[in-house]
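COURSE: Structural Biology Practicum
ASSIGNMENT: Worksheet 4, Part C
STUDENT ID: 0417
INSTRUCTIONS: Below are two proteins. For each, the amino acid sequence is given first, followed by its structure token string. Answer the questions at the end about the second protein only.

PROTEIN I
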Amino acid sequence: MPKVELHVHLEGSIRPETVLKLAERNNVSLPANTVEGLAEWYTFRDFPHFVDVYVAVSKCIRTADDLEFVAREFLEGQADQNVLHTEITFTASTIEKYAGIPWEEQFKALGRARAYGEKELGVTCGYIIDIVRGDPAERGLEVAQWALAGREYGVCALGLSGEERFGSDAYREAYDLARSEGLPIAAHAGETKGAESIREICSLTDPERIGHGVRILEDPKLTREFFLNQKPLEVCPTSNIRLGVFSALSDHPLPRMLDEGLYVTLNSDDPPMFGTTLTDEFIRCAEAFDFSEDILWTLTHNAAKAAFLPAEQRSELVQNVREEFNALQDESK
């Protein structure tokens, strides 16, 4: 099935084998030195533990070549799944902090990987450069400036991630700068905190997309607003289960979100860390919720239409998804 992914973190997508290879190459100490050991370490206790794991994996990237390598490998995995377009969240500030790689070198490396994906693999991508909640306001503004300067290398949006308990008000100036320059905003909200987190970020900057947003049903009024505005939500079911937002897939609100007419897309978040892929997300949800082909099409079509692409490229992506999906249906008849 053709697919489009809007919510996946580059650093959280590094395969365990690659993490070990980078750690050995760069003399980085990890809590485990086998794939099995890493899998056990990845068994998260809570969100702060997840952040610790994420940062430790990020520290294994030490050079621009490392970054290009993991981005190429990631795109190869997307191509293997027939993910036609991916918008990849990347935390340039963390890599700059721990590896000292200047932002422009990072973006050039990502740009080379992007060109490789398009030319050699036939897949496209864009990068969402995110502010990390809890960082100082000045750092958030700096990241916004990097994101604007990085558009020539494939940066397509300014993101916001990290622990929701820190809030997002500190980054108002960063949002305003992005807005003034026409750079879209995609913000994580409504995951580990309730619907109030979604309302907070929407009141500050009205982002084009919300990452996760699965707690929105706790606020019927907000749910109604999102239905009327058809603002896209980037839902990552396995991630929500692994991080304890919901106890089991059967408890996940995805079917109810669709029933409410919300604009939903399906995503993998941090695939190796959560033992999933985008393909797995579709299979698991189709089986758990008895999704029809029409629903699978809707989820895919939604993602293509919500991509941060120029209008002509977005229309072409939507058309390609439609043609491939129709061909699959014809084959099955």
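PROTEIN II
(use this one for the questions)
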Amino acid sequence: MAIDAFMKPSILVARAVFPQILTLLEPHFEVTSNQDDTLWTPAQLIDKLQGKQGVFTTGSERIDAALLAACPDLKICANMAVGYNNFDLQAMTAAGIKATNTPDVLTETTADFGFALLMATARRMAESERFLRAGLWNRWRYDMFAGSDIHGSTLGILGMGRIGQAIAKRGAHGFGMKVIYHNRSRLDVATELNCGATWVSKPDLLQQADHLILVLPYSAEARHAIGAAELAQMKPSATLVNIARGGIVDDAALAAALKQGVIAAAGLDVFEGEPAVHPDLLTVPNVVLTPHIASATMPTRLAMAQLAADNLIGFLKHGKAVTPLN
């Protein structure tokens, strides 16, 4: 239900955001912002949300049943992210709280980054840069930092939504890769042809892929979808890239597999318990680590913020969110 047109709803912007987004929101709402980018505890967030009808969130704000019970005025939570594992969607739906995210606007940028991380991982770019910066490069050798080819290899994709499909097109059409994928539901034939991708079972995906990229959404069922057993099914020469969500990979098991040579290398943009990183991952050389930046271009982040703002305006002023989750 929309707020009375003569009222100016109150909203909280829970993290620092582009100033122009605050300028966009202020004619519509009484805005409390956090441009100091303070990381609030759950109790502090609850306190800040008192009397607020809406909140502009990022992945760092957990919205669960306890918070909702303590914030009776809240009507909408607009996430500046495509992922929403910080939302207890079932609890929000039961409480009548609208949840929104920012799909589509980050698809191509995230696919670009996924492919960049794949290439950096396969060609041992981070490992060789550390070597060079340490002053250890004093001669050429035939096998120095020899990695694996991208072109003509087999690209496996676990999770074939918008981003997975964009990565598949880059692999099939740009690098001549054989693209295989596994998804909860198979794509239609026309989409498979457009992506140049073939559906396979999960065991076949693990066993056949030279490079495996994870792009599936986080859920309780997806937790540790890649663990020790799955890593053991991969080729010793294979690489693994995770741009999906932390927790989909068992990071401890991955670190052990990298140390033992179960797979050749990994590239990770997301981690269990981030911003903390499993300490064992920091000790292995054959992993590329980035701090959850797959969507981090200025145009894309601005588009994400704009869409989150549009969801707040659309729902609280007009009764209709642009990209609702429930």
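ANSWER KEY EXCERPT:
Q1: Residues 298-318 form the longest helix (21 residues).
Q2: The mean pLDDT is 96.
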